[in-house]
Design goal:
420 residues, mainly alpha, Clc chloride channel, 17 helices, 68% helix
């Protein structure tokens, strides 16, 4: 009888979560469409007026830091809030985070900061999911709805719902999957993707060359490439961590520190080919797949992104990581004899894998963005980048005990355990 009651309770709870995840996904799909439309508009305006806007990046950053300090001091932690909630150190995410991160990301991109966009979408979705979860009694259910909101933000903005689902399930605990959030995350991510698609959000997709045969020698080159891409992802994570630590040691008020640092970044961005390394980096991705990237593109994009995000600007790291990886792949393509598009795609996925310490998210991104033709190659790239990255990640609060922690062997099988 106890078994029957627990089973009924389990399915009842899943239905409640899915019922909440459906409007959550729809709301986030519409919000992502609005967010993306404004982001495109401010990006186009900046590209047409870079000479006047980029030197003012410091003023925009100072305004962002002042607003966070004045209206939402806790919100400045960004993704750190969600790690705290997942680890039981925080009950809920302030709903104010959603409008703050959305407006500050628009400002960052309007004035030429090198940043992504997914951080804003994921944080908006997670905050909304946490808000809806306030009426749930069980803490695991509240965490599941928060993860579903994060998946909705990711899926609504990028329109890669499978990758979005697994991002919320694996990012908190390296080497473990939070299966308790699986079903509501599926509902919210696919709903958000469908709604945002109907409202005009387009999914990125790239056609790769057909019938590339690697052979034995090509397999060896693939391994070398994966090692290099993994190192680039690790170095970016270390660069981001080092830049944040260095700026925190500067004995200035946060607003003044961001004003000075942002102004320097804006002026340097203007000097470096008129803002080539500003914004998302989609221009670098397009040139990489066209075989027109410069050998130094991935280095400068990594530097500009690390300093921009460390100085207090918002947006995220995903799209810059994609651009860094694609540019690195395009630069290495002539050396290994691969088509530029295929090498750029491998870098696009592997650098992201290494920097985020995730496996399934980039694997599904590869399938949803590039198609399934080269999925075995992407699986190898993801696996190698994931293992070689060790315990280094762009997320300082990511729990890494499931991935050869201090008491685990390097060669121990990774655990995928059902939580809750």
């Amino acid at each position: 009888m106890t078994f029957v009651k627990s089973t009924v309770r389990f399915y009842r709870d899943e239905l409640v979560l899915c019922a909440l995840a459906l409007p959550l996904g729809a709301a986030m799909g519409a919000l992502c469409a609005l967010f993306g439309a404004v982001l495109r508009a401010v990006t186009e305006f900046r590209e047409g007026h870079a000479l006047w806007l980029l030197p003012l990046l410091g003023l925009a950053g100072a305004a962002i830091v002042w607003c966070y300090g004045r209206f939402g001091r806790d919100c400045a932690k960004g993704m750190g809030l969600f790690f705290e909630a997942q680890q039981g150190r925080r009950e809920e995410i302030p709903l104010l985070l959603a409008p703050l991160v959305m407006a500050s990301t628009w400002l960052t991109h309007l004035f030429g900061g090198s940043a992504g966009r997914e951080g804003a979408a994921v944080q908006m979705g997670g905050a909304l999911g946490s808000f809806l979860g306030r009426w749930l009694k069980d803490s695991q259910e509240r965490k599941a709805l928060m993860a579903a909101g994060m998946a909705a933000g990711f899926g609504g903005l990028f329109r890669t719902p499978l990758a979005a689902v697994f991002f919320g399930l694996e990012v908190f605990r390296c080497g473990r999957i939070e299966f308790s959030a699986l079903l509501p995350s599926l509902v919210s991510a696919f709903t958000a993707s469908a709604v945002s698609g109907r409202l005009g959000v387009e999914k990125a997709s790239f056609a790769l060359p057909a019938n590339v045969e690697l052979g034995l020698a090509g397999g060896g080159k693939l391994i070398v490439l994966c090692v290099i891409f993994s190192l680039i992802g690790v170095l970016f994570a270390l660069l981001l961590k080092g830049a944040r630590a260095a700026l925190e040691r500067v004995k200035l008020r946060p607003v003044l520190r961001t004003l000075i640092c942002g102004t320097a970044v804006g002026l340097l961005s203007l000097v470096c080919w008129g803002g080539r390394y500003s914004g998302l980096g989609e221009n670098l991705i397009e040139s990489s797949f066209a075989g027109q990237a410069q050998p130094w593109d991935f280095i400068l994009k990594a530097l500009f992104t690390a300093v921009t995000l460390s100085a207090g600007f918002t947006g995220g790291e995903f799209t810059p990581l994609f651009s860094i990886g694609a540019a690195a792949g395009a630069a290495l393509a002539p050396l290994v004899g691969y088509p530029a598009g295929l090498c750029a795609a491998l870098g696009y996925i592997a650098v992201f894998t290494s920097a985020t310490n995730t496996f399934f998210t980039p694997l599904f991104i590869s399938a949803e963005v590039f198609g399934a033709r080269y999925l075995p190659l992407f699986a190898v790239a993801c696996a190698m980048a994931y293992i070689l990255s060790g315990n280094i990640s762009i997320y300082p609060h990511q729990y890494r005990g499931g991935k050869f922690g201090a008491d685990e062997s390097l060669f121990k099988t990774q655990s995928l355990t059902r939580q809750g």
